[in-house]
Amino acid sequence: MTDPNDLLALEELELDLFVTALDRRYGYDFSGYSRASLTRRVRNLQTQFRAPTISALTDLLLHHPDRVADAISNLSVPVSEFFRDPHVFRALKEKVFPILSSYPAINIWQAGCAHGQEVYSLAILLMEAGLYERARIYATDISADALARAREGIFPLQDARDASRRYLDSGGALSFSDYYHARYDFLKLDERLISHVTFAEHNLVTDAVFCEAHLILCRNVLIYFSNPLQDRVLGMFADSLVRGGFLCIGTRENLQFSAAREKFQVLDLDAQLYRRKSGG
Amino acid sequence: MGGAVVIGASAGGPSALQRLLACLDGDLPAAVVVVNHVGSQGPDLLHEMLAQRSRLPVQLAQERTPVSAGHVHVAPAGYHLLIERDRHFSLSVDPKVCFSRPSIDVLFETAARAYQKSLIGVVFTGASSDGAEGLAQIRQLGGLALVQAPEDAEVATMPRAALERAGADLCGPIEELAGFINEACRS
C-alpha cells in the first residue's frame, strides 16, 4: 500500500503547481483561497475535464486557453439562491433602506454575484421600496461565464416555489411571480430588474477598489478566503464604503479574526450587517 | 491522541448522536465533529439538543476557529463543514453532495487529510449513501472506520452503504462504538 503521507504530499505539490500555472499563465491567483475547498473544487474539475491527475488538468489548461473560462467558473462560483436567508433581506429592507433613502443617488456593490440570484432579489426589494430608480448596482464576479448567466436572468422554474416563500419571508410586498415569466421548465426574470445593474468582471484577489459604495453585499465569498486574503478584501471594502456605509456578509461569516474589524461596527449580528465607522 | 472523531448521521441521527454523546468520556482527549443532515430552513437547534445529554461541551462549528480537543463541534445547517490542514474549520456553500449540505463526505475527506492516522470516522443511521466515500478515504489515509451496526440503526441504508464501500474496523451498536472511541483516544 502507498504511504498516505506520500499521497498527500503529492497532492499538495500538484495543487501548488496548478495554482502557480493559473496565476502565471492567466493571472488568476487562487493561492489565497482556503485550501480544503480549493482541493475539492480542483478534484471535481479534474473529474469533469476527465483528467487522470491534477497535473494532467494543469497541462490541459496551459495548452487549451479556450477551456480556462469554464475552469474559472467551476473553481469560483458558489451556489446561491433567491432571497437566501430571508431575515437578512428583511434587515436590509428595515434597517438599511430607510437610511439609503436619504441619498440622492445610491451605489451598491454586490461583490461575487455568481449567477445573480442575490442581485435580482435586492433589485426587487429596492423597487418595492421606491429606491430602485436612483440606485446603481455594481454586480461583479471573477467569472465571465457567471456574469453572462447572471445577465441572462434565466433560472430553473423549480427554484420558484422556495423563492416565493423566501420572498414573502423577506418582507416582499407582492408576489415573486410578478417578476418573472415562466416558459417550459425555466423562468426569465423581468429585464427591468437589471436596468440599473452594471455587471463587471472584478477579481477580489488582485483588483482594486471598484466604486464608492453606500452598501456592499458580499455573502459567502469570504468563507473561501484565507485570513490574509480576507483581510485584504475587507480592507478594500472599508476603503470603498462611504462613512456610515453598510457591509453585509454571510450569516456564518464573521469579522472577529480580521484586522479590518476595527473599521466596522455591528448593526445586526444575526444578519451580519455592519456599518463603516468614520476615520480609520 | 490529539486527534479527532468525525461523525456522520442522517435520518434518525439526533437520537443516535444523543446515545453516543451520553457514553463518551467527559475528558475525551480528542475533538468530536458532527455532521447531521437537516433541512436548511429554520434555526439551528441540534447543538442545543445534543448539549443536554453530553458530558462534553457542544457548540456550533465556526469558520476560522480551531478544532478543539474535548469539544463537540456541530456543522451549521446549509453549509459544508471542512477541516483545513492546520486543523481549523472552514465552511463552504459549494453544491450539495449526495443531496446534502452539509455533507458527511466533505467533512470526512478534508478531516482525513488534516488528521490522517489520528482520525476516527463514524457512520450512523441514515437513508443516504453520504459518508461512504469519505470513510473509504479516511481508511486509505490511515484512519479508523466505525460503522453503526445496520440492525442497531433506525435506518440501515447509510451504514450498509459505508460497509459496502469502505468496510469498517468495527461495526456494532452505538454503545460499543463509544467504548472503542474512549479507549482509542487514550492510547
Give a topology summary.
The complex is a heterodimer of chains A (about 280) and B (about 190).
Chain A: H1 4-26, H2 35-48, H3 54-63, H4 68-76, H5 86-100, E1 106-111, H6 117-128, E2 135-141, H7 144-152, E3 154-156, H8 160-169, E4 180-183, E5 186-189, E6 197-201, E7 213-218, H9 227-240, E8 241-249, E9 264-268, E10 273-276
Parallel strand pairs in A: 1-2, 1-7, 2-6, 7-8
Antiparallel strand pairs in A: 3-5, 4-5, 8-10, 9-10
Chain B: E1 4-9, H1 13-23, E2 31-36, H2 46-51, E3 58-60, E4 72-74, E5 80-83, E6 89-92, H3 104-115, E7 119-123, H4 132-140, E8 144-148, H5 157-166, E9 170-172, H6 174-184
Parallel strand pairs in B: 1-2, 1-7, 2-4, 3-4, 7-8, 8-9
Antiparallel strand pairs in B: 5-6
Helix pairs in contact in B: 1-6, 3-4, 4-5
General description of the model:
The complex is a heterodimer of chains A (280) and B (187). Chain A has 280 residues and is an alpha/beta fold. Chain A contains 9 helices and 10 strands. Chain A has helices spanning 4-26, 35-48, 54-63, 68-76, 86-100, 117-128, 144-152, 160-169, 227-240, and strands at residues 106-111, 135-141, 154-156, 180-183, 186-189, 197-201, 213-218, 241-249, 264-268, 273-276. In chain A, the strands form 2 sheets. In chain A, strands 6-2-1-7-8-10-9 form a 7-stranded mixed sheet. In chain A, helix 1 (4-26) packs parallel to helix 3 (54-63). Chain B has 187 residues and is of the alpha/beta class. Chain B has 6 helices and 9 strands. Chain B has a 7-stranded parallel sheet with strand order 3-4-2-1-7-8-9, with helices on both faces. In chain B, strands 5-6 form a two-stranded antiparallel sheet. In chain B, helix 1 (13-23) crosses helix 6 and helix 4 packs parallel to helix 5. At the A-B interface, helix 1 and helix 2 of A face strand 5, strand 6 and helix 3 of B.
- Specify the oligomeric state: heterodimer
CATH class categorisation of chain B: Alpha Beta
- At the first level of CATH, what is the class of the largest domain in chain A? Alpha Beta
- Elements of chain A, N to C (H/E): HHHHHEHEHEHEEEEHEEE
Helix-strand category of chain A: alpha/beta
Radius of gyration of chain A: 20 Å
Mean pLDDT of chain A: 94
The CATH homologous superfamily of chain B is termed Methylesterase CheB, C-terminal domain
CATH homology superfamily name of the largest domain in chain A: Vaccinia Virus protein VP39
Strand fraction of chain B equals 15-25%
Helix content of chain B: 25-40%
User: What is the CATH topology of the largest domain in chain A?
Assistant: Rossmann fold
What structural category arises from helix and sheet content of chain B?
A: alpha/beta
| Strand order, sheet with most strands of chain B | 3-4-2-1-7-8-9
